[in-house]
Design brief:
multifunctional enzyme; DNA damage; 6-stranded mixed beta sheet; 822 residues; D-amino Acid Aminotransferase, Chain A, domain 1; alpha+beta
């Protein structure tokens, strides 16, 4: 039959008596499906398939689809496949066409963008949208001009820069399990049973998802804690010691999760769970024993958070989103003493899923003025700035600041004036607490429609009284408030305004909505103040002009300034972790030594944690919590910071595993770079997300984040067996023995970093080497083009901060996952 012709090539390539793949039989479909199959054949690739005219048009994407619009991925056209292939997952026998493991990696629907059609494929250019479990938004397929004697039809697959775009190719690196069965490539190859069906790990979140410490989830929602509040300032604070977030236009909320349930508290501690059932539902499903999450609940109008829309959403159970920006407690552990940036990195993997009801509130370090300009230009409310190294305090402090694009705050409704019409009112009368009194603050006569007027009147009439409760200008009770209807001061309204007159009355005000989450007694006048200066470093650095790196003239003062500068991006990795220091008091050219115990000479900014040694004795190990601690170590001659694989709160359960690829002298860096990618692929087949770290020396660290569940012996055992398996599989390339003699021409896979008490260089730490290089996180995309393990030095602090704020490093080093069986 003619309609079977497109599948003739497919059938001719396969022996269906040997392969479990479906026979190619034409079956009309609905024309909207797409899927991607991860295929480990002669070469690992991703088979991208679009349903067109009753078949699956197919391309082999050699490195997989990327969320980075700048990444153009080669997509080699292959034979059309039958629609029945859309659900195939398994193993094609070795020796057969396409022999290897096949995972159903993504699935969903597709459609050409308006004005385009599937027939554009014949023209060599298809612009389309995908709605998959991992691939979303707009994409392009472009056919390349064929070269002489080229047999294959080559195309490029590229992501369009939209809301679903990302900065790197983490899509394939982090999405490591089947959308159909939840299995890794290794588990499919071993024909292990399906784990779970349903939603895949999302494109922008690490996979696999976090596993709670107790599968019974026997915890209970923690009690409410007072919230940290912001101080109003008239400008965004400058300097790199601040992280900056969007100021969302919504309701502040504290989410208490535990035992499979969740409560939603307002800023004052009211239980409003029944008003936000969707957010409570998604929070209750988080895989934790217990957690306390701080955030802001918003609703959208025309793509922007809108307070009035939020009020309607609460009344009508409409769509709402919680933007989570802080984590106060997790699995019984109080996190409030950790630096702000460290708390956010603990929070990120918990709420970085694809459910729109719960999202992570991202931030930038430094560059707050630029973010503020952007927010104001886009019509958003403003920016919240937070000290990167500050703990969480349930009070209003100068460690959290807010700068607003337009002036707005809460006011108490103290009355109203009658309307000339038969319904409604002309304006609301407002008050605010100032100097211990409720003072008159003017009127608001715009911003509400008839439905809101009826709602307000229904709320105000039961509160009617004969006399005013406010004091204020001389004209109060005269012309300005003639005919006023006074009420008890219990209702709170959010008001936007242009300015305040010298006697405290609003001008050009507009009603935004009622606030039920804040008591009237707490409504006080907010007067913006100048922002504080950059966070002060309290440690005095002596001998600042002494050259620590004589080959590059870097001084002790410059090194101290570097660590103070990069503290906001370094602290998530080094804070609250036992550290060993490389101290070079006379500079790197003189005697240097390791120090891990505290002799009491570092001062108040460097802390101690008692650690039980093998012989049963106890020794105090060093750790830091803030920028002052880093600088205090530099004052004592420190250049390098090496950290344990666990934190002081979970000493016996590592939260990361590191494979240090240490090449033999003379090996080109490209050899190490390719070896790191090979480890990424092998660990990815086991379901482990990895991240590369340039060591600042000559090697690459492959970092594997872990949920702190396994103990040290388990992590050490896994890493050793993996390293020895590498050597056994490719002895010309890898060696798992640290002997210099056996390393010749090969790469030492140093798994010894994963023993209790062993350390690895910390991200952004300087190295005591020529040129003052630093260890730097990079994406796997960036690593492909790197030519050395030390491209940055201590004089590149500003560039490193800029890189950390880019999308390419968002979520670097964060993936809650556990060790698989090996």
């Amino acid at each position: 039959m003619a309609d079977q012709d497109p599948l003739a090539r497919y059938n001719a390539k396969r022996d269906f008596s040997k392969t479990a793949e479906p026979r190619g039989e034409f079956a009309p479909g609905n024309g909207i499906s797409f899927m991607v199959q991860k295929h480990d054949a002669t070469r690992l690739h991703w088979d991208f398939r679009l349903e067109v005219d009753g078949v699956l048009k197919s391309w082999a994407v050699t490195r997989g689809p990327s969320l980075d619009p700048d990444e153009k991925r080669l997509a080699v056209r292959t034979e059309d496949h039958p629609l029945s292939y859309a659900t195939f997952e398994g193993t094609i026998p070795k020796g057969e066409y396409g022999g290897g493991t096949v995972m159903l990696w993504d699935r969903g629907t597709w459609a050409p963008v308006p004005g385009k059609s599937a027939k554009d494929l014949e023209k060599g250019h298809l612009h389309f949208t995908l709605n998959g479990e991992r691939m979303k938004g707009e994409w392009l397929l472009i056919r390349l001009k064929p070269r002489r004697k080229e047999r294959n039809e080559n195309w490029l697959l590229r992501k369009i820069n939209d809301a679903e775009a990302g900065g790197t190719d983490t899509l394939t690196e982090e999405a490591l399990t089947s959308v159909a069965t939840g299995r890794t490539m290794q588990e499919i190859a071993e024909n292990k049973p399906a784990k779970a069906k349903g939603k895949a790990a999302p494109a922008k979140a690490a996979a696999p998802k976090r596993v709670a410490k107790s599968s019974s989830r026997a915890g209970k929602p923690p009690a409410f804690k007072p919230l940290q509040l912001c101080t109003l300032v008239d400008a965004v604070p400058a300097g790199n010691g601040w992280l900056h977030e969007i100021k969302y236009d919504g309701y502040r909320a504290l989410i208490a999760v535990g035992g499979g349930s969740a409560k939603v508290y307002t800023r004052s501690g009211l239980d409003w769970t029944d008003k936000f059932p969707g957010i409570a539902e998604v929070a209750a499903a988080l895989p934790v024993n217990d957690a306390l999450i701080d955030g802001e609940i918003v609703a959208y109008k025309d793509g922007r958070p809108d307070f009035s829309t939020l009020k309607d959403a609460i009344s009508n159970n409409g769509p709402m989103t919680l933007f989570a920006f802080d984590l106060l407690q997790l699995d019984g552990e109080d996190l409030t003493k950790l630096p702000n940036v460290a708390r956010k990195e603990r929070l990120r993997p918990l709420v970085s899923g694809d459910d729109p009801r719960l999202q992570f509130a991202d931030h930038v370090v430094g560059a707050g003025e630029k973010l503020f300009e952007t927010m104001c230009r886009e019509g958003l409310e403003g920016v919240v700035s937070k000290r990167a190294d500050a703990p969480y305090r349930g009070d209003r402090t100068s460690a959290w600041l807010k700068a607003k694009c337009i002036q707005r705050q809460e006011f108490v409704i103290v009355g109203w004036t009658a309307s000339d019409n038969k319904r409604g009112f002309r304006s609301l009368l407002l008050g605010v607490h100032r100097d211990g009194q409720l003072q008159y603050a003017g009127k608001v006569g715009t911003g509400f429609g008839h439905a809101q007027m009826d709602e307000l009147l229904d709320a105000m009439e039961p509160l009617a009284r004969d006399t005013p409760t406010v004091v204020g200008p001389k004209n109060l009770g005269r012309a300005a408030v003639r005919g006023a209807r006074w009420i008890e001061p219990k209702l709170v309204a959010e008001i936007a305004y242009a300015e305040v007159t010298p006697d405290g009355v609003l001008r050009h005000s507009s009603f935004l909505g009622l606030r039920g989450d804040k008591p009237a007694a707490d409504v006080v006048v907010e007067t913006p103040t100048p922002p504080p200066a950059a966070p002060e470093i309290h440690v005095k650095v002596s001998s600042r002009e002494r050259e620590i790196f004589p080959d590059s003239t870097v001084t002790k003062g410059e090194l101290a300034d570097y660590y103070a500068q990069v503290a906001p991006i370094m602290l998530p990795w080094v804070a609250n972790r036992p550290i060993s220091l490389v101290r070079c008091p006379q500079g790197r050219g003189k005697r240097c030594f390791f120090q891990k115990h505290d002799a009491g000479s570092f001062g108040e900014w460097v802390h101690q944690v008692p650690v039980t040694e093998k012989d049963g004795s106890s020794e105090d190990y060093l750790y830091v919590t803030d920028a002052d601690g880093l600088v205090a170590c530099v004052q004592m001659g420190t250049i390098e910071f090496h950290g344990w694989g666990s934190t002081v709160d979970h000493l016996e359960q590592p939260d990361r595993m590191v494979f240090d690829l240490d090449p033999d002298e003379g090996l080109d860096f490209a050899v190490t770079r390719d070896a790191a990618a090979h480890l990424r692929d092998l660990l990815g087949e086991m379901g482990l997300t990895t991240f590369p770290l340039l060591s600042g020396g000559k090697g690459v660290h492959v970092v594997v984040p872990l949920t702190p569940r396994a103990d040290w012996p388990a992590v050490r055992d896994f890493s050793e067996r993996f390293a020895r398996a590498l050597e056994q599989a490719d002895p010309a390339r890898f060696v798992a023995n640290m002997s210099k003699a056996r390393r010749k021409g090969r790469i030492f896979v140093d798994y010894l970093r994963n023993g209790r008490g062993s350390t690895a260089i910390m991200p952004y730490a300087a190295r005591a080497r020529a040129g003052a290089p630093v260890a730097v996180p990079v994406s796997w995309t960036e690593l492909r083009d790197m030519t050395s393990a030390h491209p940055f030095c201590v004089r590149d602090g500003a560039e490193l901060l800029k890189r950390a704020n880019g999308r390419g490093l968002q979520g670097w080093g964060v993936a809650d996952q556990v060790l698989p069986d090996l």
